[in-house]
Here is the input.
Amino acid sequence: MASKILIIDDEEHMCWALERAMRQEGYQTLVATRGLTGLDLIRDEQPSLVILDLRMPELDGMEVLKKAKKINPKLPVIMLTAHGTIETAIEAMKIGATDYITKPFDLDELKLVIKQNLLLSQLETEVTFLRSELTSKYGNFVGQSKVIQDIIALIERVAKSNASVLITGESGTGKEVAAVAIHQNSPRSNEPFIPVNCAALPEQLLESELFGHERGAFTGATSRKLGRFELADKGTIFLDEIAEMSMNMQAKLLRVLQEKTFERVGGTEILSVDVRVIAATNRQMDEAIKKGHFREDLFYRLNVIHIHLPPLRERKEDIPLLAEHFLQKFGHTYQVSKISPEAMELLCKYHWPGNIRELQNVIERATIICRDNEIRPEHLPRDLYAAPKSTSDIIVEFPEQGLSLEKLEKELILKALEKSGGNQTKAAQLLGITRSALLYRSQKHNIF
Here is the structure.
């Protein structure tokens, strides 16, 4: 659709000449010879750009500009001014005019200025749209629990700095949502947010993805490619599943963090970037470092600020709010607006191994298969009906001869470690104790 240009000038011959020139360029045109008429057209027709004469009777260009900016603050306005009023035109730019042209002007120069301002306005609109899409895709933190409120407060404080951030937590706890929230609340919010899944690509492809490559760097490299670090310049790069990165790639990433420079694959040019790094992992970093799977120096570079997101089972008071949040997100499409008390009870009792992502999927599925406006138990997956019993329901067969509490405790620890695959943090969670308590009790029983 062609851009709509509004010309406001009291000289009719100037309006005629400009209108003819704009139409030749393919623009739609509107004309007003009085300021008040021009303001009415701005309200009613919503032009893409205004060409405004500075000197006009009744209501001069400065007053029209002020009122136009109240109607539409983002409307591009180009001022037309005589040589003796350039200072006034500069004052108009302080008020909100995007450019000015002095009379007599070169028509080609005006056309170029118009094209540049329309392009800039379009880019600003796209940035606003993409930012809203980013929020709509990842959403915001939802929760009333103290732990989530503390995390939200921490994100707001951390966002103002340029410090590297390491976000930890199980899969589905919202690590990328946290990264987006940090970026959107930071001074870099108008710059790119570039996510990279480090586990999704083999080493050579990951290196090219992060740092780019030159033409001919490897088979299939038919042209130069910019890497994610270049694309994220002045903005934020989010390195998800950072613990899956090879040791070789970790060394290269460490150099970027230390020196803020890198070379493209197959290139020799040293490139500098200004990028904030946010990394995330669902692995236990202390264990990865101990086993030699992750560089300790890189860990300390990334872990300037640490944010840990708890699993959903540890913040069950947030489940109703999250369920309602996802219902609003998906329910409108399928005309579903309620969750029955029985269904909500099942949601709250379930242990959610897939965390928030699993809850979102369950609500989306329920809205799709629900045939009326209320989600009921029969719309939920069968897994939710078999929620594990609470510890208060555990039944222990007590033998006549009694049993050893020490042996029972040791057996429970061994079973928890077996079930968690040796993951101490998960084993502690299964037992309902802290990791430090697990270590103490394990050492007491000579387990490790």
The chain is about 50% helix and 15% strand. The longest strand covers residues 276-281.
